[in-house]
Every structure is written in structure tokens, then in C-alpha cells.
Design goal:
Helix content is about 30%, strand content about 15%. The protein has 20 helices and 21 strands. The chain has 3 domains: about 10-185, Dimethylsulfoxide Reductase, domain 2 (3-Layer(aba) Sandwich); about 190-305 and about 310-385, Rossmann fold (3-Layer(aba) Sandwich), CATH 3.40.50; about 430-545, Barwin-like endoglucanases.
């Protein structure tokens, strides 16, 4: 829709924003550094609206909390668009100069009145109108979202609906505004930029584009297929079927992937599994070969963060034992398989990327090293933000200045689609999963650290008092949470933090894997699974069963602080 898949603006601009619309992001726990900038903005007078099914810390400082029903985002966002159009709050000059297909969105949102949206979302019509007006009429207004928007069977529609709001109000190509996906890991942006998606070569050049295909065939000296590969969710469903071997780098798939009991059965049908990781994790049970990898302080290279900032990572210590840097392992493996790769350093690998991806062309390890020295003297941030196309280009603090990078911003009309798994008499609650402040993703590292473990030693389920009461559940009871795919045993936290009819579980705990419960039904475009909406229920355990629930650290093999298990 815009021509670039990244934060349009920079983290430092958040503190100068006048309106922050935070949706599907538990920012203070999942992105605490970015949350600090949001807190500064609110302290200095910015208006904040948080749309989230849970009462999170950010709602305590927000002007409004839109406690939306899980999975009803399109209704909320289309209703906001309805108000903006109906009340003449669009930026018509921007629409005329920089967009196309706005008429299709006008038609699509006519039926999405705030009153009708209230029935579906649970958010009052008055709150919807107030939020839409405030967003449309504030000059420095930015949208910030993450997995709470994308991890749905309609996640792409959610992103389309957000982008429609940005385009119709002209909040693009200017400071402290735009549309800002907050990346879930420290180098997700860099991985995508480098081509770690099935439809793109490095630099977001499509594999089915004949020009791009010819360019990379010449650079790499080989024939390349124009057919997109499988994305992650499709791959996981093909494991043990069309996929007979698996190479897993830096991910604990039997903890992180949805409907994991089905995946585990399929893993037993694989002929060969290779793992490349720095720590032992749950997936190691299936490995035929393990390549010990390095952690960030043991390697050279770059990370590209959420704001498109390319930053140097410099080796502080050598990897222990037989561990190697990831690029070294891959080169040795490729050459053992008959290649003739001659890269002598991570800088040479990066130089190839920069020569093929125009937005990186002006960035090199050497330039980043020079910039770091001068930045330290100036007290400025290190690194450069893409697009940075020449050696003298200073990079882009925000994207789309002077016009949309795509040429014309493309409006995308969307219609609400209900969740694929509605609640019923047997499964009367909606389950969502997510992260907490004290642990990180699969907790392969954080559950080895004593401080994090003390702060949060075990899994839990948050349940509303009304739902707990009807099930005979008290706070701190041991309970079983079950779905159509499996069940786990955890401790109940009875709390009004979740809305009635919903429950919430953190994803970090191997002994109570939330993804034994989640569905692997995917978004039709991205195939991203629905981690945020699954039909579930909760039942109290009897005392004999509850005594057998083990709350301890699942990764105690090395003990707290253990390294390179």
C-alpha cells in the first residue's frame, strides 16, 4: 500500500507526537524502550488512545481505553474511517495527489457505523467517534501496532484498515506520524530486508519479477525459480509430508508454533533435522545434528531495528568451545555441499547485500564504524536508517517525504470476517497469548537468568472474576485450560485485566506450552496463525492433580545463568 514494509517514522519522534494510537501492542512489556518514549509524549501533553482487549499498563496513562472484543479490529477501524469520511475530516489534497482507489473505501465503510460497531466490538460509539475525530484532526498523529494486530486469520485486513486511516488523513511523510509496526525481535527488520521471506530477494525485490530474477541470477551465478516458496505456517503443515528434512536456526519451533501437538507428531516423520542454536531448547529432542552457534556478543555484523536503523554489532569475546558465528557455519556447510563461497568476513557478506539492495547501497561496515566514532562525539545515535542510497546519503528519519514511495498510496477496502473458531457451549472463552516483561519469546535465555526466573517462575492464565466465579475458580487455583487441540495446567490469576469472556496466557513456558492450545488456521495472504483468538475454556483441578503441577524452571539443565547448553 505504501511501497515499504517498515516503521514509517523513528522512535525518537514519538516523544514529539501529539496523538498516539496504540493498537494490538502491550508496549510497556513487549517494547519497553519504545514505551518510555510514549510515556514522555503523554507527560508532555500528547493524547493517547489504547485499543486492546486487556487492561495493560499503557491503558493507565491513556486518555481512552478501547477494550475491544478479540478479533473485531476491522469493525473498529472501519467505523473510525466511516466517521472521518462522514464528517469531512479527510485530507482531500493528500488523497488527490498521492493515492488511488479511495472511492472503493468510501463504499466499503458505509455500513460500519459506530453504533453497529459497538454491538460487535464492545467499544462505545462515543469512544469510536471521539478517537476518529481526534486522530484525523491532530497534525502529529501516529499509529503503533504489533502482533495483536497481525496474529489473526484476518491480520492482513487489520493492517489494510490501519493503512487506510493513514492515507485518508494524510498522516504520512511527516514527523511524528505515520504507521509504525513495532518489530518483535531485535533483527526482524534486518532479516526481512535481507530476503528472509518466501516472496522477496534482498531489498524487497519480488522473486516473480523477471527483472529482479535476472539481476540475482547474474549476481549469484545460478538459475533461480520465479515461484514463491512456503512461508512459515505453510512449512509447518508440510513437515513430515512434502518436507522430509528441516534446518532450524535460532527458533524453538515446538514452543513457538501453533497447534504444536500436530507439529510434534509430524516431526517424528522427518528423516533429518539440523539445529543451529546457542542454547538447548525443546526442539533439540528431534535433532540429528546440532551446530553450536554464537550469541550477539560473540559475533560481527549488523542488526536493523524497528526504525530501519542499521547498527554495528562488534565481537566482545570469542564463542566458547566449538561454537561459531552463524555466517561461518553456513559457509562451511555450503562448501561441504559443493559450493565455492569465499567470503572472508561478515563485512563481505554485507557488502554483497548492499550492492544488490538499493536502499542499503550507502551503508557499509566501514561507514558505520566511522559514523559511530563521530556520533559518540556528538552524543547522537549510532547507525544509519535506510533508505540510504549513496555514501553521502544521511538516511531517512521518516519515509514517504514528498510523496508515497510506491508512487501512489493504494487504498484497500476490507470487510469484517469473524474468527474461524467461535466460542460455543463446550469452549465458552476466547484465548489470547502473548509476552510478559520478564521473559522473552521462547525464554530459551531468560529462564536461565535467576532474576527473571524469580520475578516470573511459572505460567498462568488470567481470567475475569465473573468467568472464574461461574467455574468455581479462585485466585491462585491450579486449573486446566483446554481447547480443541489440547490442554495445559497452570495457575489462575483472577483479574479484571482481561475482559469478560476472554482469557490470556503467556507463551514462554515449556512445561505449560500455550501453543498446545492455539490454532494453526492462517491468514489467507500471509498464513500468519491466529495466536490471538482461539475458543477455549478453563476448569479447576482437584487437589490431587494440582499437587503434581510443576511450577519450576523448565530449562534448569544448566542452572540459572547457564550458557551454551
Amino acid at each position: 500500500m505504501f511501497g515499504a514494509g517498515a516503521m514509517t517514522n523513528s522512535i525518537g519522534e514519538i516523544r514529539d507526537a501529539d496523538f498516539l494510537f496504540v493498537i494490538g501492542s502491550n508496549t510497556s512489556e513487549a517494547h519497553p524502550i519504545i514505551a518510555m518514549e510514549m510515556k514522555r509524549a503523554v507527560r508532555d501533553g500528547a493524547t493517547m488512545v489504547v485499543a486492546d482487549p486487556r487492561k495493560i499498563w499503557m491503558t493507565s496513562i491513556a486518555n481512552r481505553h478501547l477494550q475491544i472484543a478479540p478479533g473485531s479490529d476491522v469493525w473498529l477501524l472501519n467505523a473510525m474511517a466511516h466517521v472521518i469520511i462522514e464528517e469531512g475530516l479527510t485530507d482531500q489534497a493528500f488523497i488527490d495527489a498521492h493515492t488511488e482507489d479511495f472511492d472503493q473505501v468510501i463504499e466499503a465503510v458505509k455500513a460500519y457505523t459506530p453504533e453497529a460497531a459497538e454491538e460487535v466490538t464492545g467499544v462505545s460509539a462515543e469512544d469510536i467517534r471521539w478517537t476518529a475525530r481526534k486522530y484525523a484532526t491532530t497534525e502529529k498523529a501516529g499509529i503503533y501496532y504489533t502482533l495483536g494486530i497481525t496474529e489473526h486469520t484476518h491480520g492482513t485486513d487489520n493492517v489494510y484498515a490501519l493503512a487506510n486511516l493513514v492515507l485518508m488523513t494524510g498522516h504520512l511523510g511527516k514527523p511524528s506520524s505515520g504507521m509504525n509496526p513495532l518489530r518483535g525481535q531485535n533483527n526482524v527488520q534486518g532479516a526481512n530486508d535481507s530476503g528472509a521471506t518466501p516472496i522477496f530477494y534482498p531489498g524487497y525485490q519480488r522473486v516473480d519479477d523477471p527483472v529482479a530474477q535476472a539481476k540475482f541470477e547474474e549476481a549469484w551465478g545460478c538459475e533461480l525459480s520465479p515461484d514463491p516458496g512456503m512461508n512459515l505456517n505453510v512449512m509447518m503443515k508440510a513437515v513430515g509430508k512434502s518436507i522430509k528434512g528441516l534446518f532450524v536456526m535460532g527458533e524453538d519451533i515446538v514452543l513457538s508454533e501453533p497447534n504444536v501437538s500436530r507439529l510434534e507428531e509430524a516431526m517424528n516423520d522427518l528423516e533429518f533435522v539440523v539445529l543451529q542454536d546457542a542454547f538447548v531448547n525443546e526442539t533439540f529432542r528431534y535433532a540429528n545434528v546440532v551446530f553450536p552457534a554464537s550469541v550477539f556478543a560473540e559475533k560481527e555484523g549488523v542488526f536493523t531495528n524497528s526504525e530501519r536503523r542499521v547498527q554495528r554489532v562488534r565481537k566482545a569475546v570469542d564463542p566458547p568451545g566449538q561454537a561459531r558465528e552463524d555466517w561461518q557455519i553456513l559457509i562451511q556447510l555450503a562448501n561441504a555441499a559443493g559450493a565455492n563461497w569465499t567470503y572472508a568476513s561478515s563485512a563481505e557478506v554485507y557488502d554483497e547485500l548492499a550492492s544488490l539492495a538499493p536502499q542499503y547501497a550507502g551503508i557499509s561496515h566501514a561507514r558505520l564504524d566511522r559514523e559511530a566514532a563521530t556520533a559518540a562525539a556528538r552524543g547522537a545515535k549510532t547507525g544509519l536508517q535506510w533508505p540510504c542510497r549513496t555514501d553521502t546519503d544521511e538516511g531517512a528519519v521518516y519515509l514517504h517525504q514528498g510523496g508515497v514511495m510506491r508512487g501512489k498510496g493504494l487504498f484497500q477496502p476490507v470487510a469484517y470476517r469473524p474468527p474461524v473458531e467461535p466460542t460455543d457451549e463446550q469452549y465458552g472463552l476466547v484465548l489470547s497469548t502473548g509476552r510478559t516483561l520478564y521473559h522473552y519469546n521462547c525464554a530459551t535465555q531468560t529462564r536461565r537468568e535467576s532474576g527473571s526466573h524469580i520475578k516470573q517462575p511459572e505460567a498462568f492464565v488470567e481470567i475475569h472474576p465473573a468467568d472464574a466465579r461461574t467455574r468455581g475458580i479462585s485466585d491462585q487455583d491450579q486449573v486446566r485450560v483446554f481447547t480443541r487441540r489440547g490442554e495445559i495446567q497452570v495457575r489462575a490469576i483472577v483479574s479484571r485485566q482481561v475482559r469478560r469472556g476472554s482469557i490470556w496466557i503467556p507463551l514462554h513456558f515449556g512445561e505449560a506450552r500455550a501453543n498446545l492450545l492455539t490454532t494453526d488456521e492462517g491468514d489467507p495472504i500471509t498464513q500468519t496463525a491466529s495466536y490471538k483468538v482461539c475458543a477455549a475454556d478453563v476448569a479447576k483441578l482437584d487437589s490431587a492433580t494440582a499437587d503434581n503441577v510443576f511450577p519450576g524452571c523448565h530449562y534448569a539443565v544448566d542452572g540459572p545463568g547457564g550458557h551454551h547448553g
